Amino acid sequence: MDLSSYADLAVKLVNHEDLSNLDGLRTLLGETGRGLQAARITRGDLDAMRELREELTAVFEAVAKGDEEDAVERLNLLLIRHPAHPQIVRHDDKGWHMHLTGAGRVYDQYAVCAVMGLATLVTRLGLDRLGLCQAAPCRRAYLDVSSNRSRRYCSKRCASRANVARFRARRRGGS
């Protein structure tokens, strides 16, 4: 089981713009491709996902500030609150493999996978693999899985925008 791939769920939640209603949450769940049953979501799931988004954002912000202790403490608290229940499953013409599940609600299942994924990525690759986009004013989260730990932007669009802004600033300064 590659728990690191679950870390992307944390990034998707942190970056998801519309959690104002159940339709926004359904959109997020549809984007994850994890088979979480959006039809079963409740207002309680929505409220809990908003809270989880704030908690995960705080982890990324702590890393961005260089406060590893705070980031790890926050992750450990999330691990305690969202214990994983591994299960052996088979689906989509794949053989038997492990999945993580929560206590049953859609929120619990999402939280367990996102938190375990982040914790696994951090312990395997390091806290410096979590980042917030450095292109102003964007502050979207990303995971740096590059071989040289060089990622600074959430997307190619932001990287391009930042490079153009630097180029224009140099041209203004030189003329």
TrEMBL record:
It comes from the Bacteria. Residues 129-171 form the Zinc finger CGNR domain. Gene3D superfamilies: Jann2411-like domain. This is CGNR zinc finger protein.
